[in-house]
Amino acid sequence: EPFVADEYIERLAWRTPGGGSRGGEAFDPKRLLEEFVNHIQELQVMDERIQRKVEKLEQQCQKEAKEFAKKVQELQKSNQVAFQHFQELDEHISYVATKVCHLGDQLEGVNTPRQRAVEAQKLMKYFNEFLDGELKSDVFTNSEKIKEAADIIQKLHLIAQELPFDRFSEVKSKIASKYHDLECQLIQEFTSAQRRGEISRMREVAAVLLHFKGYSHCVDVYIKQCQEGAFLRNDVFEDAAILCQRVNKQVGEVFSNPETVLAKLIQNIFEVKLQSYVKDQLEEHRKSDAEQYLKNLYDLYTRTTNLSSKLMEFNLGTDKQTFLSKLIKSIFISYLENYIEVEIGYLKSRSAMILQRYYDSKNHQKRSIGTGGIQDLKERIRQRTNLPLGPSIDTHGETFLSQEVVVNLLQETKQAFERCHRLSDPSDLPKNAFRIFSMLVEFLCTEHIDYALETGLAGIPSSDSKNANLYFLDVVHQANTIFHLFDKQFNDHLMPLISSSPKLSECLQKKKDIIEQMEVKLDMGIDRTLNCMIGQMKHILAAEQKKTDFKPEDENNVLIQYTNACVKVCSYVRKQVEKIRNSMDGKNVDTVLMELGVRFHRLIYEHLQQYSYSCMGGMLAICDVAEYRKCAKDFKIVLVLQLFDTLHALCNLLVVAPDNLKQVCSGEQLANLDKNILHSFVQLRVDYRSARLARHFS
Predict the structure, then answer these.
(1) Fold classification of 548-696 (topology level)
(2) Residue 273 has what DSSP assignment?
């Protein structure tokens, strides 16, 4: 523990009798002083003893340091001597090594010609046996030495090719015959070893055959035997992947060029197995069933490219991507050349069938809309005047729009886009996708939606029809839903195919044109439908509103709160408002409701102008307008509510006392109105002719 002087003194005092530290003891300063003096003397003696010991150790340390330094110097000198000896030894070794290398070169220069001479002598000996026509050497007669025999016959075969034919034709044929026999034996040996699964023997035989012309035949035999029993299941693609995986592990142990052998195996699988399988699957339906043909083509091409992706992990040489692409192209080239024509033909017939089946289910004979000059003229007149041209058609509430039909058409087109993406050449992809999109526009937008709009427009009755059933809003509702589905497919499936091509702007423009064309007809139909609604309200008012409603015979016996005409009109309006809300979405709801509300207000305003009002009749008119205003609140349109608030204020002019007319007219709601409007309402009072009223209003 660290030394603390205060604690040390305290402990010393505590141990000393009379030191005053123990409880109950008398303090004895003399004794304590004496103890301190004695302790100081002991510490001084201890200090001197320790100091002497320190000095002795320092002297010993200095002595040992000198001895160590001397020893280090001696070791350095010894190290220098050893290094010099090492350099001398290294130089000597280098000199000896140079001499040895020179001697080795000289020996090799002498031995190589000697070995060649010996080899040549042996070959001459074997050649003589062929000249004599009798093979006596053990190397040719012993089947176990087939490897040595193959090496000799391969060299003799090369030599024989250099000899003149006229003099050595017989021996050349014998050597060639033996060459062929050995080659066949080696291939047979390789085949047997492969069947037995002896990889080492296969490797030895393949190494010998490498210098023979029949080496490629050996590879062919290997490839053929690899495929025996490999394609037993129905899934030829999975079988091919498993086979290549197994061969890839083995081929490196057998052949010196494994990537070439594996590439040849894959080429054989593609050009024989896969091509035959693809042809069988496609030719069966090519002319008889376009739908199944396209499905099979897409499925087979996809599975083939997936197989190609799996094979990319193997070593097939330098440019394996191009190699595999060419193999795939060789299989499908004849089918992909006219793919888009088959696709468009199928899509056209399939879409037409879907539509026709729908119209047949409705027992509807689709009428021709026409596109000639007269039809165009009618269309322009109708757009400018909003008049119904031609007889009205009773659709019996049928919209001739079907979500099921739309889903079927979109599903067919979605599958076509997927096939197009997979099967089209990258350079033709945008063009092909545009053709498919054009088919969708033709059958979904023109043949189905546009036809339904035309039929719906023709089915809208004239505005003066009684009890007309208005179904066009149902057409609007369904068309709106279909547009959302159409737009979703455009963004999800077409855009990725054309996003980086010039066809993008063309598709966007085509989509914009068709939507604008539909919107014009929707707007026209909605406008005529609103006219019909107003016409229905007119019929209700004409049938239910009586002149005596606002000028009763007995002013004191009026028991109703509002007229029967008001009740029926409000009920009708509320139903139509609800129908509009259910048929549209977004800002379209507010736009149409505001237009209906303005027309509704104009109708009630003009309707009220047709009657004269007594005091009690004016009160009833105010009650009617209050009910109309309550109905207007359902529109949730500020402008419409303001119009009915103003109309309600105008109706107050029918009952206000003559003395208060000017005050009411200058009120907040009526102050900004034209005086002629105010005057026209005051004129409706039965007491307007009285001099007093005319004087007050002038």
Answers:
(1) Methane Monooxygenase Hydroxylase; Chain G, domain 1 (1.20.58)
(2) I
